[in-house]
Amino acid sequence: MTTPPEVPAPVGMNLAPKNARNLVIERTNETSLALTRAYQDAAASTAGVGALDVGAPLLSHFTYTDEEKSLLVASKDVVDSTGPLPVYMTIFIATERMKAARADMDEKAKREADRVVREAEKAKAARPIFGTQLMANPRIVSAVATGETPIPDIFHVSLHHKIYFPLHWWSDKILRQAFDFPHSIPTTTITAVQTSTLIAPPSVMVGVKLGVPRAQQPLVILI
């Protein structure tokens, strides 16, 4: 029950008659194989029956060229217009299409993975080189821990308004106290200098130094 090898088709035979002829050959061979299997099944259960091949001799299919196979795989219209096809050829076409679809999916997945890598590299390159690692995990530390003495914003603003402090106010101890406890500075309300005849100056809070007459107080603008 061995299927014989394929044989070349007659010269000039196109796909439609070749499919029709191979379909007839396939059905003839299936009928022969079915008869042979039925006889063998009967022989296995009946004494005295020999193992004879009672089916008709199997016929050879006509060979499909590589170009014809590629055309059938690539175009459903060609299959529909030249069919029906023998079962073995239908299975071949389905297998080739599955391989092509799998290869296309793998290629798309590879392109997407490459795109993700490129985007990550672009994002990494766009980050500043200096301080990149520092800003990745920022921490808040006090000025005392760093060994630096901060100058409160209130001092900067007061100097901007030409309000000057005694020299001892610039010691590390007082600067830290003013920075850490700004609300501990005694305050009073004054009226700022008027700069326009149309707009009244606002009232601002200023710091006062205890134990010093009001006329001699240095003014500290609180922000």
Layout of helices and strands:
Blueprint lengths: L14 H31 L20 H9 L1 H7 L4 H40 L5 H5 L6 H4 L6 H8 L11 H9 L6 E5 L11 E5 L12 E2 L2
Antiparallel strand pairs: 1-2, 2-3
Helix pairs in contact: 2-4
Structure write-up:
It contains 8 helices and 3 strands. It has helices spanning 15-45, 66-74, 76-82, 87-126, 132-136, 143-146, 153-160, 172-180, and strands spanning 187-191, 203-207, 220-221. The termini are far apart. It has 2 domains: 1-139, no CATH class; 143-221, no CATH class. It is mainly α. A 3-stranded antiparallel beta sheet has the order 1-2-3. The protein is rod-shaped.
SS field, number of helical segments: 8
Provide the β-strand percentage band: 5-15%
Distance between the termini: 103 Å
Mean pLDDT reading: 76
Number of distinct beta strands:
3
The main β sheet shows up as: 3 strands, antiparallel
Q: Which structural category fits the helices and strands?
A: mainly alpha
* Number of structural domains: 2
Q: What is the topology, as strand order, of the major beta sheet? A: 1-2-3
Quaternary structure type: single chain
Q: Segments where pLDDT lies below 50 for 5+ residues?
A: 209-215, 217-223
Order of helices and strands: HHHHHHHHEEE
Shape: rod-shaped
Give the proportion of residues in helices: 40-55%
Radius of gyration: 49 Å
